[in-house]
Amino acid sequence: MLRSACLLFQCNDRVGIIAELVTFFRDSNVSISRFEEYTDNQYFFARLEWKGDHPWDDASDFEAAFSGVADSFESASFRVHFFDKPQKLGLFSSKEPHTLIEAINRCEAGEYPNTEICFLISNSAEIQRYAQRHDIPFHFVKTWKDPKRHEPAQMELIQQHKPDLIGLARYMKILSAEFIENAGCPIVNIHHSFLPSFIGAKPYELAYERGVKLIGATSHYVIPELDQGPIIEQDVIRVEPGDSVDHMKKIGRDVEKRVFATALEKALWHKTITYDNKTIVFN
């Protein structure tokens, strides 16, 4: 059976790491199809991908075989993913659908490996029609100012569906630290990154008044500190003289949906390592 998998590995940097990793795969009669490495402040990061037959039945089998190699490195950690294992993506959304639609379309186009959207949770009933079009389980959960009033119902759904990744597709509520800790999987968010001075409900209007020249978006992993999580993807687009607020909103939505969908893709292809509150992103 033709199978593909990837290994994410990190440890303190020293001479000979690449040679030892390659030797392990050579001795296992496995051909590496892609090898990327990066060093930052004397710390080594690598992502290896292989395709074809290999001797490991699953991730646990690989971990048992590779642990001895990893133990020979200082401060080493690793994780492996076999792409024939199905992945579940859960989505949260509020009223604006553009990032949600882009994520759904990319998933259906096969850009997310072996991935199904296992639920769509929203505090807007208007979003249900997008779930119905694509046969995605939809759950309307009314939200309140106090997250303790709605997060238990959301957490119950998460525990029921057991997603491998959660994406906040312009979900306009702040998650509590307890919710983030108990979600059981990484959470990816999207927000305006190049409008840091323009908080509130009308950032584009404020940006227009200030005459900004660039607008953009950032997608990041969610941590308890608001909008401080490790960054996965960013992009900007130039504002031209004479652009109206409505046009700025339009091009801003284009950037947001592209950045969010790409961040999900990076996460689902297991191309990210978080370290020291930043993200190493492999190509």
Automatic annotation (TrEMBL):
<dbReference type="InterPro" id="IPR036477">
    <property type="entry name" value="Formyl_transf_N_sf"/>
</dbReference>
<keyword id="KW-0378">Hydrolase</keyword>
<dbReference type="InterPro" id="IPR004810">
    <property type="entry name" value="PurU"/>
</dbReference>
<protein>
    <submittedName>
        <fullName>Formyltetrahydrofolate deformylase</fullName>
        <ecNumber>3.5.1.10</ecNumber>
    </submittedName>
</protein>
<keyword id="KW-0554">One-carbon metabolism</keyword>
<dbReference type="GO" id="GO:0006189">
    <property type="term" value="P:'de novo' IMP biosynthetic process"/>
</dbReference>
<feature type="domain" description="Formyl transferase N-terminal">
    <location>
        <begin position="91"/>
        <end position="264"/>
    </location>
</feature>
<dbReference type="InterPro" id="IPR002376">
    <property type="entry name" value="Formyl_transf_N"/>
</dbReference>
<dbReference type="InterPro" id="IPR045865">
    <property type="entry name" value="ACT-like_dom_sf"/>
</dbReference>
<dbReference type="GO" id="GO:0008864">
    <property type="term" value="F:formyltetrahydrofolate deformylase activity"/>
</dbReference>
<dbReference type="GO" id="GO:0006730">
    <property type="term" value="P:one-carbon metabolic process"/>
</dbReference>
<dbReference type="Pfam" id="PF00551">
    <property type="entry name" value="Formyl_trans_N"/>
</dbReference>
